[in-house]
Specification:
This protein has 356 residues and is α+β, with helices and mostly antiparallel strands. It has four helices and twelve strands; from the N terminus they run E-E-H-E-E-H-E-E-H-E-E-E-E-E-E-H.
């Protein structure tokens, strides 16, 4: 604590909001405010002797004193020191006395000896007492009592301030949650028409959101039925992923045999239109043992094409189809598992069987 000024002497300045520097206060007071939760550890602080601003939590001496008090240990301040009287919360600077200027957070202080011809810093406006905020020791929701004013007896000039708005544990004034108003202000009024229109909007929004969720549920059920249908051919699912537009499914069976399906996603936010749509299906079967000829096909829709991969030495059979959703979904959008199993199972059987 040797690098701290006497805790009971008003020398410290703090920044508590935009363009709102205050002080000087005793460090004893500021440390008590941090311990009580009315100031943050990150509150900028400065006192004569510091080259630049620090914070209550960053200065080792202050942080140690805060930690000591939070732990319930006695203060390191001299217990025999005479307590300084607290300033009158509504006191105004004495007539004819100069206003004290305050340091800027992040800037360095001016040296003690300054040329008499050097330009003098302009005093900053002093914060006015805020109505409804008590003095130190009274119940208040503001960090450092807003009513306390700068002691104009301070003589050392500190850097001018670039003030930052700091988080506080509460704001001055109390909120009436039931009435939706702040004490000291007129409660807001909402017209019956505005309230009714808002409630109607929420209802429509909820209906649309629930419709979209319903379509997503149908999509999930459909692709699950596709996976089950492929399993009837002895393939086991090895990987499954989803993009914005497709489901990518990977299956294994015997050594050197890989099957992949790309199934279009069922999208939209109107369940009544789902059965009117369709999704694309691409089935690929890859074999490391196929020794037959390639089949490029004629380009007609639904042909199974067999191509060789020059790099891997494997062959792949592929078919691309369109699945009409009304063939697989009934009126309430329940998936017809038998229909899916019949069509998808048969397609996988044909595409993989062409390379045996």
């Amino acid at each position: 604590m040797s690098d701290l000024p006497p805790l009971d002497q008003p020398q410290a300045y703090v920044v508590v909001g935009p363009n709102d520097q205050r002080g000087p206060y005793t460090l004893d007071l500021l440390i008590s405010e941090v311990v009580a939760g009315r100031l943050y550890d990150a509150t900028p602080v400065w006192w004569p002797g510091l080259d630049q601003w620090t914070t209550m939590g960053a200065h080792p001496g202050v942080a140690a004193e805060v930690a000591r008090r939070r732990a319930g240990q006695p203060s390191a301040a001299d217990p025999n020191a005479q307590q300084q009287p607290q300033p009158d919360p509504y006191a105004q600077p004495a007539y004819g006395q100069p206003d004290a200027t305050q340091p800027a957070y992040g800037q360095t202080a001016q040296p003690e000896s300054v040329s008499p011809y050097a330009p003098q810093p302009q005093p900053q406006p002093q914060p006015q007492p805020q109505p409804g905020v008590g003095s130190y020791g009274q119940e208040s929701t503001a960090p450092i009592d807003a009513g306390l004013v700068v002691d104009t007896s301070a003589t050392e000039t500190a850097p001018s301030a670039e003030v930052h708005d700091l988080p506080t544990t509460a704001q001055a004034g109390t909120t009436d949650a039931a009435a939706g108003s702040v004490a000291g202000t007129e409660p807001s009024t909402i017209s019956d028409e505005a309230r009714e229109r808002f409630e109607n909007l929420v209802t429509r929004s909820r209906t649309r959101a629930e419709a979209g969720e319903r379509v997503q549920a149908v999509d999930a059920s459909f692709v699950d039925a596709v996976v089950a249908a492929v399993g009837t051919n002895g393939f086991a699912l090895s990987d499954r992923s989803t993009t914005d537009t497709t489901h990518e499914l990977r299956f294994d069976r015997g050594p050197g045999e890989l099957l992949s399906l790309t199934v279009g996603r069922i999208c939209g936010d109107d369940p009544t239109q789902v059965r009117d749509g369709h999704v694309p299906l691409v089935v690929r079967f890859q074999s490391a043992t196929y020794g037959g000829a390639v089949e490029t096909g004629s380009g007609e829709h639904g042909e199974v094409v067999i191509a060789a991969d020059e790099w891997s030495g494997q062959a792949t059979s592929t078919v691309t189809l369109l699945l009409t959703l009304s063939d697989y979904l009934d009126g309430d959008l329940t998936v017809d598992t038998a229909a899916v199993t019949g069509d998808i199972g048969s397609t996988v059987s044909v595409v993989s069987g062409r390379m045996r």
